[in-house]
Amino acid sequence: MRAFIITGTSRGLGYEICKQLINRNHLIFAVARNHNDSLNEFAARHDCKLHFVKYDLKNTDGISELIRGIMERVHDEIESITLINNAAQVTPLGNIDDCRSEDAVKSIQTNLLAPILLTQSLINQTDERNVHRIIVNVSSGSAKDAAAGMSLYCASKAALNMFTSCIQLEDHKSLTVYKVDPGMVDTSMQEVARNQEGLAVANFFREAKETGALKSAEDAAKKIVRRVLASQS
Predict the structure, then answer these.
(1) β 132-138/175-180 pair status
(2) One biological process GO term for this chain (predicted)?
(3) Percentage of the chain modeled with pLDDT above 90
(4) Which CATH number covers residue 177?
(5) Which of 7, 151, 213, 231 fits a 20 to 30 Å CA distance from 189?
(6) What are phi and psi for residue 195, nearest 5 degrees?
């Protein structure tokens, strides 16, 4: 049996990743602020053990305990444990001098600090286990393409990419770490960006929507899930 910890599963890409990983041979921990009942219903129909873990990743002080609580429910016969750091927020949007400091802090906590601490906690708490660990960080084109009004999101995704590259160079037993860029996906987060008044790239996002250039969350998740499952072997 394989275990999966997926963040941001209540909607969008995280929801689709979680749904597509539902399998009778998988143990899934869906971490999100809000519950999506349809995931539990789908899991029940497919004889999959799925646990919803209600947690706000802005609460970075509690992440070690979050992972500890999850690991207490993972038995020693598990073949692999995969952490998919998907949760992110695109807000606040706008010039940096117009962003409230508390909103900037929440953005960095969710997009960057939480994945870092989740990675650290998972490595620390599984080091004594004879299990393959896989950590997947969901990136974005915004990590390399600067955009006025999106400085916090772009910076946090760029930093997450570099964090991933650094961990790949470290010496950890039975650990696979990589990033995936799903491309532009038609999610509620993308909708917020394209409808943001005064945002320089909003027109670009609106045109992408109107011309059908956005991927569906389902299709983007399929690509990620294929790679995740391939990295289990």
Answers:
(1) parallel
(2) tetrahydrobiopterin biosynthetic process
(3) 88
(4) 3.40.50.720
(5) 231
(6) -105, 5
